[in-house]
Specification:
It is built from 13 helices and eleven strands. By secondary structure, it is an alpha/beta fold. Strands 1, 2, 3, 4, 5, 6, 7, 8, 9, 10 and 11 form an eleven-stranded mixed beta sheet that branches. Helix 1 runs parallel beside helix 3, helix 7 runs parallel beside helix 8 and helix 11 crosses helix 13.
Amino acid sequence: MKKIKTIIAVACAGVLAAALVGCGGGAASSSSSASSSASAQAQAGGEKLRFVTGGESGTYYAYGNVLGQYATNGDYGLDITALSGNGSKANIEALEDGDADIAFCQSDVLAYAYDGTNIFEGAPYKDFSVVADLYQEQVQIVTCDPNIKTVEDLRGKTVSVGAANSGVYFNAVDILGVYGITLTTDGSTDFTPVYQSFGDSADSLKDGKIDAAFIVAGAPTTAITDLSTTKETYLVSLDQQHIDQLLQSNPYYSEAVIPADTYGTEGPVTTVSVGAVIIVNNSVSEDVVYNLTKSLFDGKDNNSDAHAKYDELVLEDAAAITSVPYHPGAAKYYQEQDITVDSE
């Protein structure tokens, strides 16, 4: 277990807060002609797209706003509205119900939906495709109890396992399972589960209502940095034996390390991660998705100060999803970069 230092946590929170403000400045500073183009685009009105992200205390929401603003303010013919969301499953359902055009989704959950397994058992949804895998989301087990040092110490405790049927919930099921700790949908558990969003989990930790929480998001995560400003906060590492066991049975995970300077912990935190992926409805046109994909990588080059996650956007990794096809518009962009993806 690694203690989070408050001073560095405050700084991290400040960086994320600045990220939301910094987007407009990054786009506007490129040149006066870009500003004129953005102004003209705003007057003309671009293709209106609804982008469902995540809870307001998570990385999806902050980064999604930055990506949406950059694409809207640039010369891409897009008008993107970033909306808060309730987790990967809910985001896919928003696409299916016609309530969104673009969505953030964990790489494991999009595979569940496409294959009709796990939380989508018997009800596959295939009318969506991939735009890009943007960055890795670390599984972060957070506590304010210094006596919780390992995953085994969660036995008998009250633990938030994410919103019901969220990607976080199934990440918790997978990880607890390799440790022999039972969390099942029929209510049989070795501890008391609660089902809360990132922000609600942080509030419950702050108020002493729960002992620990699973938060799956790109680190640093606002909910954790904010919590650490008011209470001593710790992250629990996974041990190598159980990581190896998890990866063998669940290949969509990757081993991950959260560096000590991310939150100011006493040392690096070892855990696992899944990909944070942008997906779109198949009804969105090829030209629109091409421009959306282009805006992601242009933003990395021209707007990287707006959010720290731009640093993790790597072309080859973005094109590495194999469980679900890419949208033809995204495939066209990657082909121009000499990368071929499955778009069938």
